[in-house]
UniProtKB/TrEMBL annotation, chain A:
Organism, scientific name: Amycolatopsis umgeniensis
Residue ranges occupied by any ABC transmembrane type-1 domain in the UniProt entry: 95-323
Protein name, entry field: Peptide/nickel transport system permease protein
Family note: Belongs to the binding-protein-dependent transport system permease family.
Taxon lineage: Bacteria, Bacillati, Actinomycetota, Actinomycetes, Pseudonocardiales
Keywords carried by this UniProt record: Cell membrane, Membrane, Transmembrane, Transmembrane helix, Transport
Membrane topology: Multi-pass membrane protein
Subcellular location: Cell membrane
From TrEMBL, chain B:
Name by which UniProt lists this protein: Peptide/nickel transport system permease protein
Main location: membrane
Domain ABC transmembrane type-1 positions: 106-298
GO biological process, one term: transmembrane transport
Record-linked PANTHER family: D,D-DIPEPTIDE TRANSPORT SYSTEM PERMEASE PROTEIN DDPC-RELATED, OLIGOPEPTIDE TRANSPORT SYSTEM PERMEASE PROTEIN APPC
Subcellular localization: Cell membrane
Superkingdom, natural source: Bacteria
GO cellular component, one term: plasma membrane
Membrane topology reported for the UniProt record: Multi-pass membrane protein
Keywords: Cell membrane, Membrane, Transmembrane, Transmembrane helix, Transport
Length: 333, 311
């Protein structure tokens, strides 16, 4: 197992390297450099040249790249041009918010998506199936940010849920790990934990919509596929009871593609988080990225985009490991 | 980057492989489409949308760019948007007729979606075509690049491309959104070229002494069009949604004059959701319906073309 993980990590290195070159070249190949963005209207060609020299942006591009790479290997992605903080510590500070939000959203998507997809397949062609299919198709067609606003507009007040930020104003919660819910629990500040949970509900549901819809559809298709397999007929003719067939044969085999899609959607979640965090003013990585874009903050953007790709690679590995757990045929050698 | 990326590629590759089956599949797919309520719903919605986009300038009751109600301008505030006599869906904050803007918006929204998709198809097909036609190291290098592009979440890719331009405009949105499609179309075309390489019609043409370039252009490309059309239909739906998301993030066309659903939605959602939520609902509902239409049509086309469903 360990060898497998190490090998997979090594395989990821070329991908990340190519990506780093692409991102690097890309960010510099187009007009609107950070000096212009930082100086704004006051920018004169001389001032821009000065600032570029200070930031090291007047070196040949490959020199810049190797300097960047050399430091990146040691975990140093430079300082943000906006906040003057090291980019890595910025990411560290904002990551818990996004992780909390993303985990909640995936939890919602998986816990609702698999049962609904399964129901849909079991009652194929019936009214339940039709309603679920229509809802899942509409779910993908709704702009995420609009859904967020609708939730704020229509749900927040009636349900008594906050619609902005991560924490009630004036609530002074102790920060230990940065995960607000978890912090509230370990410090036994139950008010703070509950406050954090209520702040998570609406943005998590908004972010969950697309993965939820996709998981429902994949589960349905996959369960339908499995129901046609010979081994289901065998299991039935062996006289196994329906619950046993469903649990041990249908679900177990039907879950493989679902696990893959969960992985893919987890990667895509980063994109959705940018929109959701903006709508709900939820200060996480998406917020950081949006600000970095506006200010042409190269160090921050490089780190965030590479971080996104790294997350993707790690999720990918997790998916492979879970394959072995679900299906012994693909167990790791 | 193995299983997960492979799974992301799998539907693309299966779609690509279906092109090797030749013509009979197309006819059969057509028959299957006409029997499917999903396909018909999708077809009707997209058909109506296209019709609307074409006819918009003729059926719009008022000039979508004219600022009416100038006498009601409140200093420093402009016009309070919302319902007004003579304007069925009300006016926006510039006093422009919202219904007319929605109608003309169909045209501009379609334009953004179609251009983004076409650029994605063309660039993707050039990359995929070169990879598929040459093979060898050209194939390896190009496909490696495509895999890297696939390994960035699509909205993040669009955001980062859009962020690179100094001044956001309609064109930066189109280019950014088109980049999402490039790796998909590249894989698709490469896949179907490889699948066709050993198919009967290509073998026949080769044995008749037809030149390689001619085989690629006259035999392989036309037979790859089916899956490309399927993917393009699905891409149109996501392109419209992604363009709206970019507008919302401030990476879209900043021109408040342009009547385009994504711009109208993000402007209304940010500015007057509290006082006039309907100004956000109209373009949002329009976007949802159109995205749904393209998705239904694309999914049913894909299903109809999937050899797995042949009986």
């Amino acid at each position: 197992m360990l060898r497998f993980l190490v090998r997979r990590l090594l395989q990821a290195i070329p991908t990340l390297l190519i990506l780093s070159i692409l991102i690097f070249a890309w960010l510099r190949s187009l007009p609107g450099g950070p000096a212009g963005a930082l100086l704004g209207d006051k920018a004169t060609p001389e001032k821009i040249a000065d600032l570029n020299r200070i930031l090291g942006l007047d070196d040949p591009i490959f020199v810049q790249y190797f300097k960047f790479l050399g430091r990146a290997v040691t975990g140093d992605f430079g300082n943000s041009l906006v906040s003057a903080q090291p980019v890595m510590s910025e990411i560290g500070n904002f990551l818990p918010a996004t992780l909390e939000l993303g985990l909640c959203a995936m939890l919602i998507a998986v816990c609702l998506g698999i049962p609904f997809g399964y129901l849909s397949a079991r009652f194929r062609g019936g009214p339940v199936d039709n309603v679920i299919i229509v809802l899942s198709l509409v779910g993908v067609a709704v702009p995420v940010f609009f859904l967020g606003y609708m939730m704020q507009d229509l749900l927040a007040a009636p349900l008594g849920l906050p619609s902005q930020g991560r924490q009630m104003a004036g609530l002074d919660a102790t920060t230990v790990t940065g995960f607000a819910v978890f912090d509230g629990i370990i410090t036994q500040e139950w008010d703070a934990a509950w406050d954090a949970i209520t702040h998570l509900i609406l943005p998590a549901f908004a972010l969950a919509t697309i993965p939820l819809a996709v998981i429902v559809r994949i589960t349905r298709a996959s369960v339908l596929d499995v129901l046609n397999e010979d081994f289901i007929r065998t299991a039935n003719s062996k006289g196994l009871t329906q619950p046993v067939v469903r649990r041990r044969h249908v679900l177990r085999n039907g879950l493989l593609p679902v696990v893959t899609v969960i992985g893919l959607q987890t990667g895509a979640l980063l994109g959705g988080a940018v929109l959701t965090e903006r709508v709900f003013n939820f200060r996480g990585l998406g917020f950081l990225l949006a600000e970095g874009i506006e200010r042409r903050d190269y160090p921050r953007l490089q780190a965030l985009l590479l971080f996104g790709a790294l997350v993707y690679v790690l999720v990918n590995m997790l998916v492979d490991v879970s394959y072995g757990l679900i299906d012994p045929r693909v167990r790791v050698r | 980057m193995n299983t997960l990326l492979n799974k992301k590629k799998e539907p693309i590759d299966r779609l690509a492989a279906s092109s090797a089956k030749g013509h009979s599949l197309g006819g059969e797919a057509m028959r299957r489409m006409l029997r499917s309520p999903v396909a018909i719903t999708g077809g009707v919605i997209t058909g109506l949308f296209l019709l609307l986009a074409i006819l918009a300038p003729f059926i719009a009751p008022k000039d979508p760019y004219e600022r009416y109600l100038q006498s009601e301008v409140i200093l420093g505030k402009g016009i309070i948007p919302g319902a007004q006599a003579g304007f069925p869906l009300g006016v926006d904050d510039f006093g422009r007729d919202y219904l007319s803007r929605l109608l003309v918006g169909a045209q501009n929204t379609l334009l953004v979606g179609v251009l983004a998709t076409v650029i994605g198809v063309v660039v993707g097909m050039i990359i995929g075509g070169l990879a598929g036609a040459f093979g060898g190291w050209v194939d390896t290098v190009l496909m490696r690049l495509v895999d890297v592009m696939l390994s960035v979440p699509s909205l993040l890719l669009a955001i980062s491309v859009a962020a690179l331009f100094q001044k956001p405009s309609q064109w930066t949105v189109i280019v950014a959104v088109s980049m999402v499609g490039v790796p998909i179309f590249a894989r698709l075309l490469r896949g179907s070229m490889l699948a066709q390489r050993s198919s009967d019609h290509v073998l026949a043409a080769t044995s008749l002494g037809v030149k390689r370039g001619a085989i690629v252009v006259r035999h392989m490309l036309p037979n790859s069009l089916g899956p490309v059309i399927v993917q393009a239909t699905l891409t149109l739906a996501t392109a419209i949604l992604e363009a709206a998301a970019l507008s919302f993030l401030g990476l879209g066309d900043p021109d408040p004059n342009r009547a385009e659903w994504g711009i109208m939605l993000s402007r209304s959602a940010r500015q007057f959701l509290d006082i006039r939520p309907e100004l956000a609902y109209y373009p949002a509902i329009a976007i949802i319906i159109v995205a749904l239409g393209f998705t239904l049509l694309g999914e049913s086309l894909r299903e109809a073309l999937d050899p797995k469903n042949r009986r």
